[in-house]
Amino acid sequence: MSAIASFIRFPKSVLRGLREAAVPEDESLGGESDYFYDFIDENGEELEFYGSGYTIVTLLSFLDENGVKLMKSEYDDLVRYMYEKREELCFVFTSSHRSEYCEKLDRNAFSESMLRDYYNKFNATNETEIGTAMLEGIQCIRESLESIDDDSVVYLRIG
Question: Residue 148: which CATH number?
Fold first, then answer.
């Protein structure tokens, strides 16, 4: 099973619609219609496609342990709802995250070996090149945060 991480910027004004699109509509003759991905395509802007969702989740845990708290926001109810309805792990990054953490995400502040060792311990693996991917993940997160303004959020989907 693979997990893909992608960063999608949405205007805050469409988040209610995202929530509504999470539940497929029941069509009387043809079964359910799922407009979720159409909603994302029509209302969101994909910022980054970052391959491994497992790497990003591990990176978010590493950052959290090091004072960069990106896994919580004022949209935690939406995050829980999306997990309930779509079984989709997601996080919502906000302008508060941008102002508080963007500068702390300088990839020069982290070493490949530090990130590799954390990943291997966290996942009970022995990946030798994972530190590079983790550094790339830091860059993706920073660029995503930089794209946020007061009227938008970044929705990180892992699935």
Answer: 3.40.1760
